[in-house]
């Protein structure tokens, strides 16, 4: 399962996994984009399949309904890629509570709910080689002096803690299920356009000032993590554009 598979990193990851022969449930609100991607994968002759699922991850009922549909139609989740995420330009001194809640709901709570449900799905089917990959950010490792990123950064620090906490709980449970996060710097996607939705020029400038990572660069990290032998647990991959300063 890949969350946020409608655009950006999630769409690229879903495509790459289908190309590798996996059956992928891709979810997001804009399910039409995922349907188009599924058709694209099919006509390209990729060996896997992409199954689009409409889900608003800020709504727990939607998430639980999706896991229940995956259970009844596809038996369960073996690999959970928590990719969906967003930034809102709400600073700590004057930002709106609704922007903070949206970031918390998707970046932290949905990721945690999907992780719990994916683990339970693996456990009930005795899947001992599953993988949970969280798409974190360099913002989960240092705070840059830009007020619009401060609350977002707090949600990504949470992802750093959640990934390591998950690794520890998986060890306590004596499973071989692995937990990894991937922490990119600037990746050219819709992210900045959604963050600065009232200022598209500012958003475009984000991706023009340096040569950014492409979604496919992050995808390669995901494929690498999934390709490692069972005794190798990758905790975090930090990857920035070479020209990025922060
Ligand atoms: N781009 C960067 O520079 C960058 C850097 C570091 C980390 N990241 C992280 O990478 C991940 C992917 O971001 P991206 O750059 O690919 O951004 P993006 O192009 O804006 O894509 C975000 C994805 O998240 C989904 N999403 C957002 N809110 C959702 C909701 N309530 N329910 C379901 N899906 C939701 C969107 O789908 P719908 O809108 O269709 O629902 C979309 O598929 C995020 O976790 C982000 O924090 C990005």
Automatic annotation (TrEMBL):
Secretion signal span: none
InterPro entries registered for this protein in UniProt: NAD(P)-bd_dom_sf, Sc_DH/Rdtase_CS, SDR_fam
GO BP annotations, alphabetical order: steroid biosynthetic process
Membrane-spanning parts: none
Molecular function per GO: 17-beta-hydroxysteroid dehydrogenase (NADP+) activity; 3-beta-hydroxysteroid 3-dehydrogenase (NADP+) activity; estradiol 17-beta-dehydrogenase [NAD(P)+] activity
Alphabetized UniProt keyword annotations: Oxidoreductase
A Pfam family it matches: adh_short
Highest taxon listed in the record's lineage: Eukaryota
Gene3D superfamilies: NAD(P)-binding Rossmann-like Domain
Family from the record: Belongs to the short-chain dehydrogenases/reductases (SDR) family.
Protein name: Dehydrogenase/reductase 11
Gene source species: Saimiri boliviensis boliviensis (Bolivian squirrel monkey)
Underlying gene: DHRS11
């Amino acid at each position: 399962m890949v969350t946020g598979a409608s655009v950006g990193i999630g769409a690229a990851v879903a495509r790459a996994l289908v190309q590798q022969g996996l059956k992928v449930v891709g979810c997001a609100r804009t399910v039409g984009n995922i349907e188009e991607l599924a058709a694209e994968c099919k006509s390209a002759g990729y060996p896997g399949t992409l199954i689009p699922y409409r889900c608003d991850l800020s709504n727990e009922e939607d998430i639980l309904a999706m896991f229940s549909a995956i259970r009844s139609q596809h038996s369960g989740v073996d690999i959970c890629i928590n990719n969906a995420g967003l930034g809102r330009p709400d600073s700590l001194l004057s930002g709106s509570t609704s922007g903070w809640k949206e970031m918390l709901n998707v970046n932290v709570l949905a990721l945690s709910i999907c992780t719990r449900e994916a683990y339970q799905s693996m456990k009930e089917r005795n899947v001992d080689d599953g993988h949970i990959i969280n798409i974190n950010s360099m913002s989960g490792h240092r705070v840059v002096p830009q007020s619009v990123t401060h609350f977002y950064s707090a949600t990504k620090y949470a992802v750093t803690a959640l990934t390591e906490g998950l690794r520890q709980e998986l060890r306590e449970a004596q499973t071989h299920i692995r937990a990894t996060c991937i922490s990119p710097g600037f990746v050219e996607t819709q992210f900045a356009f959604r963050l600065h939705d009232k200022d598209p020029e500012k958003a475009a400038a984000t991706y023009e000032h340096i040569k950014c990572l492409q979604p496919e660069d992050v995808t390669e990290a995901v494929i690498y993590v999934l390709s490692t032998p069972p005794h190798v647990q990758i905790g975090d991959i930090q990857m920035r554009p070479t020209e990025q300063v922060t």
